[in-house]
Write a structure and sequence with these properties.
Elements: H1 2-5, E1 8-14, E2 17-21, H2 24-36, E3 42-43, E4 47-48, H3 49-79
Antiparallel strand pairs: 1-2, 1-3, 1-4
Length: 89
C-alpha cells in the first residue's frame, strides 16, 4: 500500500532535459532508445515521489522569494532616489 502512495520515480537526463517514469521497464526502454539515437542519457537515482515533491516545493519557495526581492528592487529603481526625500534640503 505504501508503494502506491509514494511510488518510486525513475529518471534520466539528456543534456538539460530530465525524463521521468513511474514504470522501471518503460524507463529502461526509453533510455535504450535514447542511446540508440546517439543521445547520451545519464541515469538519476530512483527517488520516492514525495521526496521529489518536497524538493520542488522548496525550489518554488526560493524562486518566489527571489522574484519578490527583484520586484521590490525594480519598484525602488522606478521611484528613483528623489522620491525618498522626506523634506530634507
Amino acid at each position: 500500500m505504501t508503494e502506491n502512495v509514494n511510488p518510486i520515480i525513475y529518471s534520466f537526463d539528456i543534456l538539460e532535459n530530465t525524463y521521468y517514469f513511474f514504470d522501471k521497464l518503460e524507463a529502461e526502454k526509453a533510455f535504450e532508445q535514447a542511446e540508440a539515437k546517439g543521445d547520451y542519457p545519464e541515469w538519476r537515482e530512483p527517488t520516492p515521489m514525495l521526496e521529489l515533491l518536497k524538493i520542488k516545493d522548496a525550489l518554488l519557495g526560493e524562486f518566489a522569494k527571489r522574484i519578490a526581492f527583484l520586484e521590490l528592487q525594480l519598484e525602488r529603481a522606478e521611484l528613483g532616489s528623489d522620491s525618498f526625500d522626506l523634506g530634507s534640503s
